[in-house]
Design brief:
Radius of gyration: 18 Å
Oligomer: single chain
Strand content: 15-25%
Helix content: 40-55%
Low-confidence stretches: none
Shape: globular
Number of helices: 14
Mean pLDDT: 88
Distance between the termini: 29 Å
Structural class: alpha+beta
């Protein structure tokens, strides 16, 4: 079995990774550019992350994204929260990935709650603008130019899009800040809403219930701990799981693989480089 260090070395040897400068960053948005260093075929399982993800193919090398319904998608794809089994494959890949907080995604994607658990073509959400942006990105001279184009597009759409309720945004921030370990009752009380109202509004705007959102955030925190080399038993104890079996069930639910497999997953191995906060 590969250790986390060797998994990182293998992933880093395969990918060139670009990240934006401070000027191209927006709150609730993360971006990274990936280019394969070799022509070897790539086949990756996507590990769910508590964000809506845009995959923009800039090379025609990303052949398909397969979701749990065996639906094949090409070019620019949007992955909703917890999209199920998703794989990316191809060769000579060059792709720009954008992670959107679901609070931001609700505004820039004209309401994204319906995307939870599935994938969609960006063109279906943005219409002709998706093709225009795609061409601008392919014509850009550098990754910095590409990041600037995406940042400007998202900032404009965020300014004119439909914002989530402030109470829902607060509940999401608290969920992330506590690594998914805050109770729904506490969220509702702190937001000044009833539990029923928070549950309803959160689900309609974020795309899942506050409880399931907490599970997804907790899973992400646990996955990162596993990748860092900590044992499943320790991760379970420190991440709010009842026991190691509870952790195993949640990891299988979200990632469709065991905690041991998640610890060496290529998709996560370069997270500290691509998505450093």
């Amino acid at each position: 079995m590969r250790t986390p260090d060797t998994a990182f070395a293998a992933a880093a040897a395969r990918w060139h990774i670009a990240t934006p400068s401070t000027s191209a960053r927006l709150p609730g948005v993360q971006m990274a550019g990936f280019r394969t260093r070799t022509s070897d075929p790539v086949d990756l399982s996507v590990i769910p992350y508590p964000a809506v993800t845009l995959l923009i193919d800039l090379s025609d090398g990303l052949h398909a994204i397969d979701d749990s319904g065996n639906r094949r998608q090409q070019s620019d794809v949007v992955l909703g929260l917890a999209p199920g089994r998703v794989r990316g494959g191809g060769h000579d890949i060059e792709t720009l990935q954008v992670r959107l907080s679901p609070v931001v995604a609700h505004a820039v994607l004209d309401g994204s709650a319906h995307l939870t658990g599935t994938t969609a073509a960006l063109e279906d959400l943005w219409g002709p603008e998706a093709a225009r942006i795609h061409e601008r990105l392919r014509a850009a001279a550098s990754w910095d130019d590409r990041f600037a184009i995406v940042a400007a597009t998202l900032a404009r759409r965020l300014a004119t899009g439909r914002a989530v309720d402030p109470e829902v945004a607060f509940a999401w921030r608290q969920t992330v800040a506590t690594c998914g370990q805050v109770r729904v009752e506490q969220l509702a009380a702190d937001a000044g809403w009833s539990r029923k109202r928070l549950w309803s509004r959160f689900r309609s705007q974020i795309g899942m219930s506050p409880k399931r959102a907490g599970r997804l955030v907790r899973f992400d925190h646990a996955a990162r701990r596993l990748v860092a080399g900590h044992s499943p038993a320790l991760v379970a104890a420190e991440s709010g799981y009842v026991d190691q079996s509870h952790l195993h069930r949640d990891v299988m639910t979200f990632a469709d693989m065991t905690p041991t497999a998640v610890a060496v997953a290529p998709w996560l191995a370069v997270d500290d480089v691509a998505w450093a906060t």
